[in-house]
Amino acid sequence: MDMLTSPEFWLAVGQIIMIDILLGGDNAVVIALACRKLPDAQRTKGIIWGTIGAIVLRVVLIFFALTLLKLPYLKLVGAILLLWIGVKLLVPEDEDEHGNIQASDKLWAAVKTVILADLVMSVDNVIAIAGAAEGAGGGHQMPLVIFGLLVSIPIIVWGSQLVIKLMDRFPLIITLGGMLLGWIAGTMALSDPAVLPRLVPGQSAAPALWHYGAGVLGALAVLVIGRLMAMRAAAASR
Q1: Where is this chain primarily localised (predicted)?
Q2: Secondary structure class of 144 (helix, strand, coil)
Q3: Total structural domains within the chain
């Protein structure tokens, strides 16, 4: 239980919860669309079972992601994907993105739809959460992932609408979330087994200055690229 007294553990838990809230808006939309035709008595069951199934599936995917991140160059690939996910948060979304989600009036058909749709849409969450868990170190990654996801379940299921309204009212939350993903991307790239030995020979972990510098660089990259792309999208829509 020594991990519960580690500041790195609780920092990573906070990052995982924030990532799941920011990237969980899609999940809330999928759940609502897939369960909208269920009878009122079954709608809550559909939401709960669909969410549980999606979370279990995500834990399995993250387990494989954490294993793969130990291979050379894969953290670099993950960092690039994270940067792109962070940039996408800052660019206006396509309103018709979820138009192909099929609703069902059968409970388990709706649950299956939620789980399958979440599988397709989970790449961003899995990479981001695996990156945050990697930052905690100490061999506590999977307990950290499971704990963070369990804490985030009620937030996604019952608090998603409130979170969405807050993000609409305070766009700075989305910007900070995108920059958080950029921070994780920067530190993840630096810790890649193919990068760290070349930059810091003989060290198993990056010095604090390098670590924070890479994080700041990643956060600024998301901010700058995201703002430029948002301006270009706004100009194109006129």
Answers
A1: membrane
A2: helix
A3: 1
